[in-house]
Structures
1.
Amino acid sequence: MQELMDPIAILGAGQVGSALGRQWAGKGRRIIFGARDPQSAKVLALTDSIGPRSTAVTVREAVASAEMVLIATPWSKTREALDAAGDLDGKILMDATNPLAPDLSGLTVGHTSSAAEQIAHWAPGSSVVKAFNCIGAKSMSEPRFGSMSASMFICGDAEEAKSRVARLTEEIGFEVIDAGPLSNARLLEPLAMLWIDLALKRGLGPDIGFKILRR
Ligand SMILES: NC(=O)c1ccc[n+]([C@@H]2O[C@H](COP(=O)([O-])OP(=O)(O)OC[C@H]3O[C@@H](n4cnc5c(N)ncnc54)[C@H](OP(=O)(O)O)[C@@H]3O)[C@@H](O)[C@H]2O)c1
């Protein structure tokens, strides 16, 4: 299937970018990290450890090579990364960012907008799908908790783009919950704050994830 051959560009080779890049490479996908310094020791060590399915180039080169683009930059650097990306028309932007205050005390965007909607505003020809923001990077490497898979909430306005992101999310072991339109990122970004508060301030630790129960 052609979709399996398509590379994924990842902007931000940090905790989230490396965890998801390693996961998708392990599923046979080609990963192109877009980095400010693709020759840095840190980035080279990452691509070496992932193996031949991953490479690192500039942000612009990475985005030019892929239709699917994961945004895994600190919120304060996200506009800069998108500005460096060049033409984003037709791209599917998977937005993992959270617009965190530097001391993790809260969100700097919210209620009447969200990071995801800001990104859609900055890249109007793209399809933005919020995903991967409500769980710690460690659990992106291992979304199974005993016999259950953590839920991953995604939202976006373009159904085909959302379906493609859903497939990528399920492929690495999450249960996907379609959380509706992109404006519902206004709900998902505060949910990430709850995860941060529970994990880092209330003593639950990073091995926690949200799960939808049904009957
Ligand atoms: N960590 C988590 O558990 C977690 C979970 C869910 C969502 N998130 C969200 O995901 C995003 C990434 O978090 P993280 O923990 O992975 O951050 P991180 O470990 O600090 O990594 C951020 C990466 O972004 C890169 N970067 C910064 N500015 C850039 C630019 N202009 N162009 C390209 N790359 C740039 C950094 O590279 P250099 O500085 O070396 O250039 C670094 O590799 C954040 O918005 C965060 O809120 C994090």
2.
Amino acid sequence: MLRALVHATPMNDAERLETVFKAYGHEIAAFLIEPIMGNCCSISATREYLHAARALCDRYGILMIIDEVKTGFRVARGGVQELFGVKSDLCTFAKAMGNGYPISVLAGREDIMRKLGKGVVHGGTFTCHSVALAAAEKTLEILAETPALQTIAEYGTKMRAGISQILRQRGIPHSFSGHPSMSGLFFSEQAPRNYRDWASSDYTFYDTMAPHLHDLGILCEPDSREPWFVCEAHDGKCLAETLERFETAVERVLQQNRSPGPAHQTG
Ligand SMILES: Cc1ncc(COP(=O)(O)O)c(C=O)c1O
């Protein structure tokens, strides 16, 4: 049903977007994008694409909605919009802003937000939940007053470097996408530019490795589409352990590939 109301276009193809806007712009209300795809390997819009999309939205009178549910208060204090230097008309936030407490936020241009309550309904069971609001207030205070986001970005950068070293030593092609605080890891030289690229890629190495990492106590996402999200509580000891076990897991996959047997060994 919803499919009939949506035009899906591949990320990073501004020409295709313009073609759709040209043909259907008069009936399109909004362009919705998650510039770093938090549920698909952190595949990212390029800066050029996002700016082109912004310009096209302005030209065709279409609202730009940016989903910052995963990137907000993580990739920068001002989210992916600060990172890319783009401003949406409406945007959503959640996850990191409550540091685990259930909260979500819709923000945007004043003239649009003022429509709430005037024919546009906004409400929900947990709307204005005081505990979640208190958690978000404290989280935002900590993010404003400490280098927490820098810390997770640095950790993620070191983790990427460590992973690269382990894979390079074994001649395993790989690449990363997204932001170091939420990295997508691919076992190919070029990271996908959009979902279709990912869907046609070979992710068996990751799928084989993830259960080994779990057995070794590293709880990465078993689904290769989920990026690796860094938590501020992770420290240098954590990083060293993660890399050591990552190396073991890679060795187990290589061993398994040399002599295919049971899906994976435990212990
Ligand atoms: C990037 C992104 N956007 C939107 C949502 C949906 O949020 P909600 O469950 O609050 O509708 C999620 C859920 O995890 C998400 O990861």
3.
Amino acid sequence: MRFGFSTAGESHGPAEVTLVHGVPAGLGLIADDVNGDLARRQKGYGRGGRQKIEKDEVEFLGGVRHGYTLGSPVAMLVRNRDYANWEDRMSPDPPQGSNSVKKVTLPRPGHADLAGMQKYAFDDLRNVLERSSARETTARVAAGGVARKLLAEFGIRISSAVYVIGAASFDKERAALLASKADESEVRCPDEEATERMKAEIDAARHARDALGGEFVVVAEGCPPGLGSYVDWRDKLDAKLAHALMSINAIKGVEVGMGFGVASRRSSEVQDEIVLEDGRLSRTSNRLGGLEGGMTNGEPVVVAAAMKPISTIARALRTVDLSTYEPARAFRERADSCAVPAAAVVGEAMVAIVLAEAFLEKFGHDNMTDIRAAHAAYTNRLRDEVIRRSAAGKDARGRA
Ligand SMILES: Cc1cc2nc3c(=O)[nH]c(=O)nc-3n(C[C@H](O)[C@H](O)[C@H](O)COP(=O)(O)O)c2cc1C
């Protein structure tokens, strides 16, 4: 079965649940492999009060035995600690006695609230907002932890960096190059001076009872060439990465490599020339973000995403009360004033998941022993071809 995942769970329900299928047998996997990323998702300057309540930790419910995967679906649970405060409103059981729960009827602009109520015929928008909340991205980060562990076995490392928050920005290319240092910054920007400017932006927006978005870049180093395919549109890796990143709450745009910048440049300023360097085919630049023809080309994969500002703001926006159809102000639930650093960690998880799927598609699904052998055979073939053919080329030139 193809590598992939599903999630279940409501923001203030008992837990976030992740089911990852297509995980090969024999992959070393312990809770700490996932918990580190769960903790990174909870960080970031500008987060709201929820992160102080939660301390996300995974429990394996299936698919792992004595620290190794079994080839069966990996089932993971992350408990919502806040559920203790919400049990009356979020219990799966019918309400007890005459205790009816107050309905929420003030849809928030920028959220799934209004169309969700219309689509699913609800009269209480809690039924929509609980699932449409970005709390669900916790479950994605858990799936990403499994994907990342698999990729790390083959030297593939994924990192992210924030380079725009509101009007404060840092150079995107430099952010991508320095992404492995981003954990040191409260806003995931690998530059101290830019970090301070971004924090000041967040403070100013919060002071104005408003919120901010921004941009982040995700970098995957160590990918072999040929993940994904040009043969069928469904297998094009750039398209899959765009889908995966766009599926994250509040992401409104995705760029591959230099992204929209390609449109206004000449071809010679966009393509990455091919050279032989140290007995290896490589590129003089990586403007196209390591992706050509829907496949990895051996250079780092570089993708970026733009996040819109948080929709729920203290200066509540206009709406209509759906119980009376009178003008009103939007419902407010505790909210972040900036979640771009957290979204970047979710972006890493989504990129890891897409790459893991493509990796296993190329090298097999069943068990790590066979996958290691297939990966070694492929990388050896590519290396040997360079040695053999360049020696043959030298011979031919010598004879001429
Ligand atoms: C990590 C993360 C945290 C978020 N936190 C909030 C929040 O606290 N308040 C809010 O209104 N939106 C928040 N959002 C954005 C909303 O979830 C998102 O705008 C909403 O679900 C509507 O989806 P759309 O913007 O993709 O159309 C967050 C998004 C992410 C990725």
